[in-house]
Specification:
8 helices; about 0% strand
């Protein structure tokens, strides 16, 4: 699903409400790849914190991190900071820790630079989560 038309985004937003975890996960992957992610940030946040299945959380987080941009990382950090369910919080932490960028030096430096930027974010939850991640690296 790579239809980023208005109708395609509406369809993905509707799919995010599906009772089937696999449909919600597919919606998360699709919405995470949207060029104008900000317009669907609320839906992505809900999918990252999916209370019914950590598969939805995982697929959405992986897709957001695959963007390799501040917006994707910020969305995952924001969800991790407020996750009240331990399974969801652990899944988000695992996706952050398992990001493939950590496997190579230069890509790891990209991730550290993004975390440093987000450590000064306007949102205190994002800021604190980024600082916690950076502290773990030291």
């Amino acid at each position: 699903m790579d239809d980023f038309t208005e109708q395609g985004l509406r369809d993905a937003i509707a799919a995010a409400e599906s009772p089937a975890w696999s449909v919600r996960a597919a919606a998360g992957r699709h919405l995470a790849a949207a060029p104008q992610m900000e317009s669907v940030a609320g839906v992505l946040h809900r999918l990252l914190l999916d209370a019914q299945d950590t598969g939805v959380t995982s697929d959405t987080a992986v897709a957001l991190l695959a963007r390799r941009d501040l917006a994707g990382l910020r969305a995952v950090l924001a969800a991790r900071a407020v996750a009240s369910d331990q399974g969801t919080a652990d899944q988000l932490a695992a996706e952050l820790d398992g990001d493939p960028r950590w496997a190579t030096g230069q890509d790891g430096a990209e991730m550290v630079a993004q975390l440093q930027t987000l450590a000064a974010d306007r949102d205190p939850d994002v800021r604190n989560e980024a600082r916690l991640r950076l502290a773990r690296l030291r």
